[in-house]
Queue: 2 jobs
Job 1
Amino acid sequence: MELVFEKTKGLRDKTTHYCPGCTHGIIHRLVAEVMEEMGILEDTVGVASVGCSVLSYEYFNCDMTQAAHGRAPAVATGLKRVLPEGRFVFTYQGDGDLASIGTAEIVHAAARGENITVIFVNNAIYGMTGGQMAPTSLLGQKTATSPFGRDAGLQGSPIRISEMLATLDGAAYITRVSSHDVPNIIKAKKAIRKAFETQKKGLGFSLVEILSTCPTNWGLDPLESLHWVRDNMVPVFQLGVYKDVEEGK
């Protein structure tokens, strides 16, 4: 019998806690496959953030540690500086964690050019804590704390993390991809590998922003959520490479 699929060794045999239709599971698999294919599972330390991904240390089959809310880049900085040679360090963070309480940490880690990789999952809402408005929530988007829709005059406009970090000299590779369909998932995996290779070459800070779904807090079914990413998030958070020092961009 021909083998058409084999579960990556980068994930443990444990059922995740994510809601049906959430693409965290897909993103976990992509990160795990990249680590396995690069042969770095035994040499990688991941930093779990606070949010829906708070239990990611139970899913990735590599060394993991837990950081306080928003502090994953600071913890990753310490790990990488203590283990600079032959070790890979990555953080796995959501938009509430990274773009709100952790804004200072992510900005200064990028500004310092810390040789770490950040996996940034953007679903435009606070998932774990009940669907509050996030810094990345879209204008007009209804959330638990913006029941009439986000108003630029009251709450400002969405923060575009990739565009902001790409302006910093210490950033080596910054890209935004999506998980809403197969072609974009394939591109997302390539971007994750590029980010880890950037770290391997010692080029500096890398971040892959991945647009993701939140069917539960968006009040949509899984298929509708994928379409919502395509139709609403992609026009605001445009996909593409925003910084790549290796390519001279």
Job 2
Amino acid sequence: MADTASSVQSHYAAEDLVARILGVLREEGYDTDSLSVETLNLTDQLHDGGLGATQAQADLAGVSEGLRVLDAGCGIGGAARYLAHAHGCQVQAIDLTREFVDAAIALTELCGLSDRITFRQGSVTDLPFDDQSFDLVWSQNVSMNVEDKAKLFAEAYRVLVPGGRFALSHITAGPGGEPYYPLPWARRADYSFLGSEKEILDRLAGAGFRILEIRDEIIAPGGGRPPKPLAGSVVMGADMRERAINSKRSTEERRIKDMLVLAERPA
């Protein structure tokens, strides 16, 4: 497990993220002296589908003002800022990669949202939060890097209040064979843990969750896609184009498949 954590951290680690993100935005003509969440959405939605996928997951989860949300695997804080800004949530966020957490804190300060979001470094399989602390646990394209999904789901269940919800987007293995690497979340197969859709659902049920809804599209039908994100290679690495091509090809050949799940801790 320690080797896996090191591989995941190395995969995502990058220096000077904030300066590089602001530089790209300035080059595109955006005002970075008065930074908005909407402007940052062009650079901080690191998952496939970008902001449209985040909006669809929030709609599925029934996000509303005042919810206490845990963003479990927050990256540079894009989803956390969206939930706080667009829906008025109070968000605690955690990520394994120190560089991502530092960037998330700095970008959130620049947007004036530090009073609504708290970031810390840590593991989603060992959450540093009290039992029944949250109304919603949010996990967006994180679990592909988590080998011990039983522990991930058990921790999500533990920190939810009865009746609380778990919104999970995940990429599962498909029937077409092994995907092509490198991929956005893993350059090698040894730290990519997909599992089948059935395995994910069985693990959720084993943790005590009740499945409310399952979708195989990360963006709601007819929802359209937002403008193409900027600076993907700045945040995710110079080989991001190759990884995105491999992801698209693997999807087309049914080697991988999107999965969006809403589950509930029974009241």
